[in-house]
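Re-run with default settings, no changes from the original entry. Doing this only to confirm the output is reproducible before filing.
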Amino acid sequence: MGSASRGPPPAPPAPPLPAPAGDTEAGRSIESLRDQEEAGDYTPWLGREFGSELEAYEFYLNYARKVGFTVRREYANKNKKSGTISSSKYVCSREGFKSLDKRTNRSKTPQPDTRTGCKACLTVRRNNGSSKYEVYGFEPKHNHPLFVPSCANPFQRKIVDIQSSEANTSSNVASACEPESRNYVLGDNAVTSREWQRPLRTRRQQEIKCGEAAALLNYLQYQSRADPLFYHAVQLDTEDKVANTFWADVKMITDFSQFGDVVSFDIVSGNNMDLRPFASFVGFDNYGETVVLGMALMYDRTVESFQWLFDTFLHAMSGRAPSTIFYRQDAYVGMAISTVMPDTSHALCTRHLKQTAKGNMNYLIQRGCDFMKEFKACINDYEEEMELFTSWEVMTSKYSLHGNVWMQKVFEEKEKWARPYMKWTFSAGMKDTQLNERLHSDVRDYLRPDIDITLFMKHLQKVVDDRRYIELEIEFSSRLKLPDFKIRAPILLQASEAYTDMIFQLFQEEYEEFQSAYIVSRDDSGPCREYIVAILDKERKHKVYGNPSEQTVSCSCRKFETLGFLCSHALKILDTMDIKYLPNRYILNRWTKYARCLTGPQIDGRKVQEDTTLEFSNRYQYLCPVFVRLVARASECEESYRALEQCSIEMCKKVEGILQKQTSIDASASQPDVEDIQVSLSASATDNELEHAMNYSSNKRAKKTKKKGRKDKSQTRSCIKEWLQNKQTLQLEQPAMQFSMLDNHIQPGTDSEGLPSPFPMGQFHNEKMQPR
C-alpha cells in the first residue's frame, strides 16, 4: 500500500450526496456520510471509520466520481460464524491486466483491453470492539489519465437536484427511466436566440394545420426563454403566414464548430405532402457518431426558400460554411448552395443515385442485364478520368442510352459523385445522406399532420438527446480502451495517442499494408523527390512526392486530402526518408481524441467576421458560453461561488471604467443597438393564426402507432464505420502498455510527464488543416 498519513487532509467542499430513503441502519449511516460530504470531507485517510461496509463503499465511490475514475470490489471476506463482512478491498476498475487468450483460432475480434495495472485502492476492516469499519489501506496514485466529471461513467453518476427538478417537468414523451446523464451542460460556441424574418414573394406551397404555426412559434419561444443561446429563425410568405422555420441549440452550434467540415442535408418528406416537411443538417464526430447540426420545417421548397434556409444556417454558425455538403439530386438545393455558399463543394448522395437508377432503368434490370453492376462501377471503382469516360461510353453504347435524359443529367453532374473528381474534395468518409435518413426514421411516426406539432417537437428533442447520450457513452468507453497493436512501431504509438479508436484502426491497417509496399521507380534529382509506389498483388501504381527537408509527402490517391489520414503509399515514402513519426500537419484535428477540447469557441484560432456590423453580436456570442461554463462550475460549492461573486464585482468596475474611457475618447461613437439583435416573437404569427391558436387543443394526444422492429444489421453506420464492420483481429494480443505512476493530484483530462506524449496536446490547434 502507498504511504498515507493519519488524520483528515484538507479538501475542497463538495456537493452533497442524496440520502437514501428509509430508516435502516445503512440508510442512517449514509445520512451521516452525507453530513460529512457537506462539510467537504471526502478524501480517505488511514483510520477513518464508517458505520457499515456499504457506507465505506459509497464513500469511495463518491470519491472516485470527484477524482475521475471508476471502482469495483476486489474482494469481501466474511466471518464464517456471524456471516458479517470482516474486510473489503475496493480497487480502481483499471487494476490488473487482461489475461492472454491462448487460443490459436479466435472467431471474434478481441475486446479492447482497459486494464493498466493501476494500484489505487481502499481497504477497510471491521473493528470488533466498535463494530465499525476502519480504513487500514489507501493508495491514492493512478497510472492512467483521470476523467473530467462530465465524462464520468454514465452508470455511476448521481443526479443533482437541478436535474431532478427538470426531469419532473419534462415531456410525457420521454421515458420516466431516462438516464440522468442525458442532461447536459453545454456551450463551447453559441449565438443568441434570434428570430429572423425574410418574407417570401410567393405563397407557401404546403399548408399548415390550423393553429400549428402559433403552437410551433410558442414552442420555439419557450426554448429561447429556457436557453438564451437557442437560435431560431422564421420565414413568412406573402400572406404573412409561416412558410419555413429553422432552429439550432447551443450543442448543435458547438458541434458544427468542431465537426462542421462535412455536412449532410436532406428533407424527410420529399414530394409526400402527407408528412411534415422536416429537414436536417447532420455530420459525424471524431468517433464516427452522428451529430445533429440544425433542423428545419420547410413548408415551401422553392429556390428562394432554400436560399433562405442555407443563409440562416450560415448565420447561425457565425458565417462559417462547410467544406463539403452532401444532398440528394435536387436542382433547387444545388442552386441555393451555389448562391449562398459558393466556396462549398457539392456532393450527391450516391445511394440515392443508385436507387433512382433502378427506378429509371427498371426495364433493363428486368431483362437480367448487368446495367446496375456497371453503373455502380462508374461511381465506386474508377479513380482516373479517362477510365470513367471509357466505361461510361461503353455502358451507354451497350444499352443504347445516349438519348436518355436522366443519364445525360447524371453525367453532367459527374463532378459531384465520380471518384476522379471527388478525390479532390474532403469528405471525411461520407458518401451519402444515410445519417439523415436514420434520424428521419426515428421521427417518421410523428410527422403525420394529425400528430400535435408540440408532441412532435418534444419527441424530436428526445431522439436528439438519445443520440447525445450515445456520444457520451462512447466517449467514456473509448477512454478505458487500450490500443490493440498489430505491430509495435513508434509511428503507431504516436497515432494511438492522437487518434480515436476508430481512426487508429484504419490508420493501423494502412500501416500494415505499407509493409507490402515497394518502390517501382524514383527520381531524387530535385529537392522534391518523385516516387512510383505499388502494393504487392495489386496492379494500380501511385505517384508520391516527398520532401525530406520540409517533411512533406503527397500521394496521387489523395486519401489524406479526402479522409484525413495518410495512406500506405505515403507511409512508405516517409519511411524511405527516415521519418519515423507523423509530422503534426498530417494529424487532422477532427479525428483526434482532443477534437472537442482543441477547437473551443473559436474557429481555426479566430472568430469569423463576415460582416463588420455584427462585431457586437459576435463578441457576445463568444463571451456568453465562456461565462455560462464558469458560472455553472462556480455554483458547485459555496467557496467558489463567493470567489466568483467578488471577482464579478471587480470585473464590472473595470469594464465600466474601460467603456467610460472609450466614450470620453470618442463621444460620437455609436452604441450597438441590442434591440436590433432580437425581434419580437409576436410579429412572427398572423392575427388569424393566433386567433385559431386560442381554440387549439394543447392536450391532443398522438394516435398509438406500431413501430416496425429494426434489426441491428439495418442500422445506419457512417462510411468510416462500414470499413471496420467486417474487420477481425486474428493476432494474439500484445502485452499491456506500461504506464508510469501518476500523482492523484493531476487534474483530469490533462497531460502528465509520466505518459508517453510525442507532441503537446495544444499543438494541433495551429496545424488544423482545411483540405479542399
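The chain has a mean pLDDT of 74. The radius of gyration is 30 Å.
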